[in-house]
Specification:
single chain; about 160 residues; mainly beta; five-stranded antiparallel β-sheet; 1 helix; globular
Amino acid sequence: MINESVIRPKGEIEMIIKNKETGEEKRCFHNTVLKKGKEALASSIANDIGSSYNFFISRMLFGDGGTSSGVPKSVSTERNGLFGITRASKPVISTIDSNLLSQVVFTSVLDYDEVNGVTLNEMALQMNSGDLYSMATFGDLNKTSSIQITWLWRISFV
């Protein structure tokens, strides 16, 4: 039996907050690659894809249940859904990093007029199959019309 830790896709998320009142702020944090994501990788390279390929990342989900008393919750690899309500589901732009061909960058934007009045604290990459590939929690972020957030989610294979 192969130890699951041998499969080492890893991810890092950069959150770029543009605030009309205070300027730009950047935050970085890591994600957890979920069991369904690792299974999709194995199925992809084994050409075990069925009648259509649905393992690609199609959406970035944002939710409100990722903290407990303001502290980010730990994400188990067994999860396949957000802790709270999905407050936004955005398409992603996928780009392979030309300087690091084993890394893909998923980009999405929550614009000034989107998801206002919500405290965001969790997010996930959703495959076209509906399963989650990867998930992260972070400190509470109160989304207002003064804030636009650009998300750069990097997944590397090491």
